[in-house]
Amino acid sequence: MKNMLRFLQDENGFAAAEFGAVGAILTICTIGVVDIGNLVRTSMRAKYAVAAGASYAFRNGFDASAISAAVTAASNAPSISVSPGPSQFYGCATTSGIRTVEHGSTACEGTTLMPGVYVRVNASAPFTPIFNSSVFSYPRVVSATSVVRIK
User: C-alpha distances in angstroms, 151 versus 41, 59, 60, 101, 112?
Assistant: First the structure.
């Protein structure tokens, strides 16, 4: 009994046990922060890529293959995909967004403004988290879209 009492009162090694418990929690938190950082980086790459594609369309007009090439070149990520591909459409700007109209429409509804020619650029990139758990729900695909008026 005396040995048991001495064992329970002994403080040798207690700091190491505390460090082990706290270290495990800090490691899990660090992995979570790294995952969120990678998710933000992947999202920024996709947004930057579609912005580059929209910029190309604004400067050079609609050319689906050239816009797709601009998106993949700007992404600096080998796994980014331009899907669905760039599309051109006619639309009228409204307070709630761009309303698609038929080609050849003479005026936007309720105004004297002419419809514009728009290009929609999409990009998506897969995201694989380091820490795969049911506690944190990460998207498996990060996507971005940009619309620009070219005429």
Answer: 32, 11, 11, 14, 16
Domain boundaries, the chain: 2-149
pLDDT of residue 1: 65
Q: How far apart are CA 99 and CA 29, in angstroms?
A: 45
Question: Shortest CA distance to 44 belongs to which of 54, 52, 55?
Answer: 52
* 3-state secondary structure at position 11: coil
Query: What is the value of pTM for the model shown?
Result: 0.73
- Cβ burial 134-144 (10 Å sphere, 16+ → b, else e): eeeeeeeebeb
pLDDT digits (tens, 9 = 90+) for 101-126: 887 777 777 777 788 899 999 999 98
3-state SS of 73-101 is HHHCCCCCECCCCCEEEEEEEECCEEEEE
Q: Give percent of the chain above pLDDT 70.
A: 87
Contacts of 51 (CB under 8 A, 6+ apart): 74, 146
